[in-house]
Amino acid sequence: MEKYKSYRMYFCDEYTGQLNKFGGLPTHLPPTWPKDTSGEDDLAFLCQLYCDGIKLEIKNVLCIQIYQWVDSNGDEGGDPVVVAVPIGAGENLNKEGIHHPMLPEGDIRFEEVVEEVVEEHARNTLADEKGLFLWESKLKGWFREAPILPGKDAVTPANFLGTIADGDRHIPFHGCSPFNWGCGYHLVFYINKSGQLDWDLF
User: Relative to the CA of 192, which of 28, 146, 158, 160 has its CA 20 to 30 Å away?
Assistant: First the structure.
């Protein structure tokens, strides 16, 4: 049995100024504001997770931010985009950027847990030996090694950074993800073989 320390995300329905947050606008600006695949429309800011050296650590990165295309009615379209914001990025003092019109602003808080995993059991049940569901939104912890997707590196517990589950409502319910990836997918972010931040939907 292997033990993995993980940090379960809890999406709160109030914002108290935390650096780990969702909704509203980012506290720091990315190098360039992300655009859709056509290069024409700006994406909407969804959330940010700060590299504190414990829950999340990426060399020379201040935080990661997640964006998605959203229309004027608040309907999402297209895959999310994960951006690495470098150390030294400017604070968003002028409240620049595009926010999600239907997503309230809230804190992302964390609960530290220890996952006790027997690999063959976990692969079949997606739960650890205590019955803890292993596919909650979290940073670090166990990850079922995923097949290599075209043009991508394999994701293993060694390079896995975190995952955010698909949600079905914009207002967090019992701390669950308020984001819409579609079809029950999980957004997974990890470090690729080049040492860079990468992501995919599983």
Answer: 28
- Answer yes or no: pTM beyond 0.70: yes
Q: Provide the pLDDT confidence category of residue 147 given band limits of 50, 70 and 90.
A: low
Question: 116 — alpha (psi -120 to 50), left (phi > 0) or beta?
Answer: beta
- In the chain, the amino acid numbered 135 is W
Quick one: which of 66, 63, 65, 99 has its CA closest to 80?
66
Specify the 3-state DSSP secondary structure of 160.
Answer: strand
Q: What is the pLDDT of residue 8?
A: 98
pLDDT in tens, 67-91: 999 988 878 888 999 999 999 999 9
The CATH number assigned to the domain with range 2-201 reads 2.30.320
Q: Which residue has the tokens 């994960």?
A: 82
Q: Where are the domains of the chain?
A: 2-201
Task: Name the residue among 118, 136, 137, 138 with its Cα closest to residue 128.
Answer: 118
What is the rounded distance in angstroms from the CA atom of residue 190 to the CA atom of residue 103? 25
Q: The tokens of 76 are what?
A: 């999402």
Distances (CA, A) of 27 to 24, 64, 65, 88: 9, 11, 10, 12
Residue 196 has pLDDT above 70, yes or no: yes
